[in-house]
Amino acid sequence: MEDGKYVDGSIYFYAPNKGAPVFFAVAFATSGAYHAYQCIHYQSWRLTGLYVFCAALFTAGFIVREMGAFDYGNLVKFIVTICLVYAAPPLYELANYNILGRVLYYVPYHSPIHPGRVITTLGFISAVVEALNGNGASYSSNRSLPEDKQNMGKALIKASLLIQILIIVLFLMLAGVFHRRCQRSGVLNDKLRGALYTLYASTGLLVVRTIFRIVEYFSLASLHYELGLDPMSLSPLIRYEWFFYFFEATLMLVNQVMMNVRHPRKYLPKSTKTYLAKDGVTEVRGPGHKDTRPFLQTLFDPFDLIGLVQGKDKQKRFWEVDGSEGADKGDLTSSHGVTSARKSDDETV
Predict the structure, then answer these.
(1) What is the mean pLDDT of residues 305-319?
(2) How confident is the model at residue 179 (pLDDT cuts 50, 70, 90)?
């Protein structure tokens, strides 16, 4: 049992548990392997391939942590496990943005933003977060560096965590507006509910984890391991390992497995060209929600405010003539099915 006391020579503060890393490495590897199978089965590498990569990061991170448990004075192993484990959660957020984009493709007429811009806009910000997070973790965990370098690392991590919260708020606002529009128009069927509720649950897990990371880093930002420091003055978040295993490892494993059980392709068609007609039942194969604007314009004007002012957005409303108003019979299917309107459609983003 942990007693919260410093273990001499340990970079972790405590003597790391030797059994927990094995469990989580095996669990994440198993989930990741199943996600790989699901990507092949559903042909959804572009949609959920990130879950395979995240599982690989966590698996590698806990393998290194297991090695560090037998050599808890080794700085390199400590830095490697920290960087690997902390790199995965922001990618889960990126995966959620991708899935939300696919949900918006499914009901394009209620999307507050071009569906493809969800991943590019929020993904761009996430890339910045990932860069800050990775560099911050490497600097802050390397206690052989000068104090100013360690402080810079902590500042980078704090910035990344705060930006993560901001992105999550924007994500929830976007999903909430879309959800409300679908509900008011009566097209919010079971498939949409399933996809949206899964995203909300995933986001909730990520929010709890991010808040934990914020509290941990802000409470320890001014502390350094040096002569004269009373180990018992450190935050319990550092002195007890179970905080890490609950808020970091367990919550992220739940998120990983939840996406196995509630896989997005159970609710969404394979192709982004397949969308839900305004009757809320019929699925229609359309031309796809394309954005022909230059990339930089789509990045900095994701809501196409310029097009809205100029009236160009009306030219893209292909759903105005949907399945109930004259689409070919071969292009229609019941929305209660799992497959898309045409099985030959390629998955696009």
Answers:
(1) 52
(2) very high
Write down the pTM of the prediction.
0.80
Tens-place pLDDT, residues 142-174:
767 787 887 788 788 878 878 878 888 889 999
**90: burial class by Cβ within 10 Å (0-12, 13-18, 19+)?**
buried
Sign of the torsion formed by the C-alpha atoms of 223, 227, 233 and 238: positive
Residue in the structure block whose two tokens are 């367990």: 250
